[in-house]
Amino acid sequence: MNFNIAVIKGDGIGPEIVTEAIKVMDKVAEKFGHTFNYTQVLMGGCSIDATGVPLTDEAIETCKASDAVLLGSIGGDTTTSPWYKLEPSLRPEAGLLKLRKSLGLFANIRPAYLYKELKAACPLKDEIIGDGFDMVIMRELTGGLYFGERKTVEENGVLKAYDSLTYDENEIRRIAIKGFETAMKRRKNVVSVDKANVLDSSRLWRKVVEEVARDYPEVTYSHMLVDNCAMQLVKNPGQFDVILTENMFGDILSDEASEVTGSIGMLSSASLSATSLGLYEPSHGSAPDIAGQNKANPIATILSAAMLLRYSLNLDAEADAIEAAVQKVLEDGYRTVDIMSDGCLFVGCKEMGDAIVERL
Ligand code: NAD
Ligand code: IPM
Ligand code: MN
Fold first, then answer.
1. With contact defined as beta carbons under 8 Å apart, do 357 and 305 qualify?
2. pLDDT band at 24, cuts 50/70/90?
């Protein structure tokens, strides 16, 4: 079959990791008889340099007209890059947020799974790891603090900054449904994470999650405060199946969960809308500290490409093949620097991509 895919390489390690993911997708296309037509789209710092804005209207239209969007990562070093001297709405991240909102990508799925081959890269003790863990973080992506009203004003000679956190019940309901639907296909457990001991938005979150839960009697669920969840993730990660949470909490908890899988370079993500159009990107950033050095782990991006095939193109066997090739490459001992351990074969970004393609 023929598919149109918008490709956003972005900044920092973005071009390196996307190149590897495209190599893998091309191999899948060859093996399964598909054609993927790629259209390159600018977003982030590279778009600022070329057009003056982090995301043009044409770029949004190209994404909307595609079957799916594959993204590397955007942004630069936030302390030294000149992009962070621009007004906030013109900085790289504003492009990503605008794209998420424009495409209606309210559901961000971040699977955190410990490959047994990566036990040595996991910072937790063996007795905590136990039989390993396999969780999904279901993060709300187009509401909350990220999209609330924001301003900085001077009041009586004192600077004051405001960021507002709002959710309406419909925004909560649709992500809660996604969380419970996902749990139904897994181990049927949801932990909804909030800060209901302090925040009104969290109290509404709890109320709506409880309503949604009534439609899923087979799913066991509980509520957990976000500070406790941060602690439980390193104390007993095996307890989690689906973590359902709002935008900012999900951002922070997914980085934490990624590290216990061995590295943030392993954590893929899918951002889904009410239609089949989705955006697929690693959960990590542009890693300016290692950009251009062939050091980045491309696996998170390659696994995101597998999610693209599965969720937007409905190509399950093809997605399975990529996941199996990643599993095999880890069994065969290939490791980038972030997941390296004794006795393994140290490789760069490109060599990791090649090794995965060979196993397809
Ligand atoms: P980061 O995720 O880019 O890097 C954090 C650390 O993880 C760094 O030490 C980096 O080298 C390492 N790392 C990240 N990805 C890796 C990979 N694939 N392989 C090996 N090591 C990897 O986070 P940061 O440094 O806080 O942010 C850098 C920039 O990225 C910022 O401009 C930020 O806004 C942006 N960012 C973008 C996205 C995105 O595009 N979705 C996500 C997060 C951060
Ligand atoms: C992520 C990133 C983004 C976020 C930034 C770059 C806006 O950290 O995708 O996790 O906070 O959502
Ligand atoms: Mn993040």
1. no
2. very high
Region 302-324: what's the mean pLDDT?
98
Ligand nearest to the CA of 108: 2
- 227 annotated ligand binder: yes
- Please name the residue whose Cα sits nearest to atom 4 of ligand 2: 251
Say how far apart CA 115 and CA 297 lie, in whole Å. 15
Helices in the chain by DSSP H: which ranges?
14-32, 45-51, 57-64, 92-102, 126-129, 169-184, 200-213, 226-235, 247-260, 299-311, 316-331, 349-358
Check: complex ipTM more than 0.90: yes
Alpha-carbon distances of 244 from 49, 193, 333, rounded to whole Å: 37, 6, 34
Question: Which of 163, 251, 254 is the pocket-test mutation for ligand 2 (most atoms within 8 Å of CB)?
Answer: 251
Q: How far apart are CA 305 and CA 193, in angstroms?
A: 28
Minimum CA distance residue for ligand 1 atom 8: 287
pLDDT at 348: 98
Q: What is the helix, strand, coil percentage profile of the chain, to 5?
A: 45, 20, 35
pTM over 0.80, yes/no: yes
Q: CA–CA separation, 38 vs 41, rounded Å?
A: 9
Is residue 140 a contact partner of residue 246, using CB atoms and an 8 Å limit? yes
Per-residue model confidence (pLDDT) at position 212? 98
Q: Which atom of ligand 1 is nearest to the CA of 255?
A: 2
Is 251 a pocket residue for ligand 2 (Cβ < 6 Å)?
A: yes
**What would you report as the CA-atom Rg of the chain, rounded to the nearest whole angstrom?**
20
Instruction: Note if 227 is an active site residue.
Output: yes
Please work out, in degrees rounded to the nearest 5, the angle formed at the alpha carbon of residue 252 by the alpha carbons of 250 and 256: 110
Active-site residue 328, yes or no? Answer: no
Write down all domains in the chain, each with its CATH number in brackets: 1-109+263-360 (3.40.718.10), 123-260 (3.40.718.10)
pLDDT digits (tens, 9 = 90+) for 158-184: 999 999 999 999 999 999 999 999 999
pLDDT at 37: 98
pLDDT tens-place string over residues 213-234: 999 999 999 999 999 999 999 9
